[in-house]
Amino acid sequence: MRIDELLKGASERLTFVSDTAQLDARLLLAHVLAVSTSYFYTWPEKRVSDADLERFNLLLARRVLGEPIAYLLGHQAFWSLDIEVSPCTLIPRADTERLVEVALSVLDVNKAHRILDLGTGTGAIALALATEQPRANVIGVDLVEGAVALAKRNALRNQLGNVTFMHSSWFDALNGTEKFDLIVSNPPYIDPSDEHLSKGDVRFEPKSALVAGNHGLADIEHIINVAHGFMVSSAYLMFEHGYDQAEAIRERFNLAGFSSVESFQDLGGNDRVTIGQWID
Length: 280
Fold this sequence. Notes:
alpha/beta, DNA_methylase_N6_adenine_CS, N5-glutamine_MTase, methyltransferase, SAM-dependent_MTases_sf, peptide chain release factor N(5)-glutamine methyltransferase activity, Helicase, Ruva Protein, domain 3
């Protein structure tokens, strides 16, 4: 079958499950053929071998069932990085880049900051900060051992040596004497009864990385209440969170004694990141 014919048919099959049907089809075929998507504009008449056609159709069938394109390809772009992904943890999303932007806005690139990323997953946030803060010492922790191994591979994949990943339930494995200039987290923040858990990509992502008790605030509350013991004076703690959680998180920051509490919006105009500063 010709490339253009194959892509046309695949795009039609994906129209009902994806808002980016044509792009999805091109990405899957490029992955199978080990070419860039620009190849299809140059060689639309090229024929796909039977073996490659079979591989493509298997991936296409999984995408038709809703499996995220990033899991099918095995990687996802984030910040300036190429991040390996797997079903053991969340897929990095564009909204999370807002957390990186806010974090960088409070850091001096000329200083050797100590940065902690709680619930690091693929390591995307920690690695983005490490690449923009080459003098920093970045630590990322995660409860899931598979995620820690994945994050370590991503550090090697992106040739970053100023970041370390370790297995830990939040702060548990850290030395109590360690103090950080910045703590960031994209923790589980979805209410267990949220209807969105049965829709879209999140159906395939681990619920342990998505769901938290107390209307999605339980893990955030725990981190706020413990974090100050691991922060130098004037350090910042910041979270990515749900669009409707900013006010509740600001209240919890204030109750815990943080100052300079502020929320920042994402590209969609939703409150996405809330920060607080710890002053001894």
